[in-house]
Structure formats: structure tokens, C-alpha cells
Amino acid sequence: MKTIIHKANSRGHADHGWLNAWHSFSFAGYHDPAKVHFGALRVLNDDTIAGGMGFGAHPHDNMEIITIPLSGQLEHRDSMGNTGIISKGEVQVMSAGTGIQHSEKNKNAKEPLKLLQIWLFPDKKNVEPRYDQRAFDLAAARNSLLNIVSPMGSAEGLTIHQNAWFHLGKLDKDLSIIYELKDKQNGVYAFLIDGEVTINGERLEKRDAIGITDADKLEIEAVADSEILLMEVPMLR
């Protein structure tokens, strides 16, 4: 088993006033040659967007994009004609493929919006762009691991063009749980949204992360009430 630890305060940080962004991997003006990607996982941005503010229309291509609101409401528009509001408990996926444009805005004028935006390299290029979003019953993540993203063709979760699985867990203090990898050739990047846990013996606090490869399972113990996101992804060998 191989592990890498990314402490919360080691992430890249950019405060633009309207946007307070923390980057787990090299992004925009932040570059760390040791943190370019973890396998197919290219971007993990932890963003706080001020009331009424957001990103104007901008392009993407050949990337699988997953957005997970943590609080507040995200207003989305794109060049495929999709419009909508995404709130906590919902997840949005886009396959940028041959190219899309989209805008993202905090719907609420007075309350901040907090979200995670994640980019994965796709397993095939130049696919037809697609969009999907779904509301999940977060009660199903209580002391369990709720599947929210899966490979194309799967029956569970929102599907993407990559051999990847995402799970959310809301774990009570002292709970122990095991995550078994779906594909033993993959790695897992675990991001602790809140709380305190140990994973395979390594202690993590709020917004810390651990990347684990060459393992077939993760043993997770909640030291405090915790919320965690597990991202199992190909390692692009």
C-alpha cells in the first residue's frame, strides 16, 4: 500500500473577494509539480462564492466535471440549453466532450455558496457533451457510503465517462466502516469534508485528504462525527 497525505493548509489558496478558493491540485495561478493530479483526478476545488456572484460563461472540453454543493444554491446555465438550481444533497455531472460553455452563480444574494468542483480526465475523448443532476437522500449516507458517481452503464449514481466511483459518507463518532475498491487497479483519494477520521491508520482532520494506491480496501474509523468523500479513480498507468 502506498499513501500520500495532503493537509488542508498545504492546498493552493486564492482569495478574489467574491471567490475564496482552495485547490488540492495545481489550478489557475497555483502550481505545485508534486500536486498536478492523482491518477484521473485532475481538479478538486473547495470554493466559497459570495452572495449573488459567480462565474460567467466559460468553455470546457474533454473533461468529466462533478459539482457537489455543501451549502447554499448554485444556479447553472449551459450551451446545451440546461438551466437549473443545485442545492446540498444534489450532485451535478457534465461530460464536456467536444466542448461546452456554462455559467455558475450563487443564486442567493445574501448567503455564501460552498461547493466542491471536481474534474476527471475522461476515458475517451470528443464524446457528445451531456449533463445530468440528481437529488440524493443523504439519510442513506448516515453510517454508510452512498454511491453518487459511477462509470457509464452503471445502475447506481450519476454516470461519467471514466472507470470511477464516488461515495459520500456521514459517519457517527466511533463508527468503523470498510470501503472495498471496485477495481483493484484503481486508487482512492479520500477528502474529509468535516470531522476527524483515521483511514488505514492515518489520521485526517477537516479538509485533509489522503491518496491510497496498491490497496484493495480502506478501513475508516470516525474519531468524531464526520463527513467524507471517497473518489476511486484509475491511476493512468
What share of the residues lie within helices?
Answer: under 10%
Coarse morphology: globular
Integer count of domains: 2
- Parts with pLDDT < 50 across at least 5 consecutive residues: none
Structural class assignment: mainly beta
Structure annotation, total helices:
0
Stated plainly, the CATH topology of the largest domain is called Jelly Rolls
- How are the strands of the largest sheet arranged? 1-20-17-22-15-13-14
Distance between the termini: 16 Å
Proportion in β-strands: over 45%
CATH class of the largest domain: Mainly Beta
CATH architecture identity of the largest domain: Sandwich
In CATH, what is the homologous superfamily of the largest domain? Jelly Rolls
- DSSP summary, beta strand count: 22
Radius of gyration: 17 Å
Mean pLDDT: 97
Please summarize the sheet with the most strands.
7 strands, mixed
Order of helices and strands: EEEEEEEEEEEEEEEEEEEEEE
Features:
single chain; 237 residues; mainly beta; Jelly Rolls; 2 domains; 7-stranded mixed sheet; 7-stranded antiparallel sheet; 0% helix
Task: Provide a brief overview of the structure.
The chain is mainly β.
